[in-house]
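Box 3.1 A note on notation
Throughout this textbook, protein chains are presented in two layers. The first layer is the amino acid sequence; the second is a token string describing backbone geometry. Keep the layers aligned when reading.
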Amino acid sequence: MANTTTSVSVAREPLLIGQTVVVIGGSAGIGLETARVGRSEGADIVLTGRDPKRLEEAARGLSARSSAAFDASDAAEVKRFFDELPAPIDHVLIAAYTRRSYGPMLDSSSEEVGQSVGRRVTQVLEIARHAAPKMRAGGTLLLTGGSERPFSREYGITAAAFSVLPPFTAALALELAPVRVNLIQAAFVDTALAASYFADETAVEARRDELRATLPIRRVVGPADIAALAVHLMTNTAITGATYDIDGGQRLID
């Protein structure tokens, strides 16, 4: 008598059902994709961004609970936003673009370099101090950063700024406990923001081709890759103070 195997599809409960995810910088790119994945997992989404029109479109497409347009680098606006946001919230992703300085460090003043290196830290601190009192224990504050390796003399300041984030994340995790704090450090992620750093579309495509040929994963990292990791860090409550490199293995070949 032949044995037969029956395939049974088992439905699972959404991972973030009943939780609220706030995405700072959620109108495009990594922030928007993470919001989409969070929404698909049952979360209520609160979006923020600088561009009111783009933010409104994103919020409507996601059926977000609410949205607010402001510059996340403005401490007063950050405070106002969290003061007005109903509690409790569970997770906060900081995906907002922080303006960075480019060029050789020795061509800039010491004050300019110091401000550029510290800008992401001060932005996160303002968000953390106002978000944490409204967050449930076990929720997570998720930071995003970039490569700590300067690929040319033009990017020394940027690399230095990102290199500060791992120890800062660990220290903040101790201060905010039992709210968790984790960091996602990405290299090139194929977004409109990343493309804007290049001279034209030909240069962007050349970079994509280079990455496809050299990265161990043989493809370019996209926003969906970051979003998948972000949601994992939201749901795995044993992780705090950690830094995750998500670069397709670029650090192994540079």
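The chain is about 45% helix and 15% strand. Residues 191-220 form one domain.
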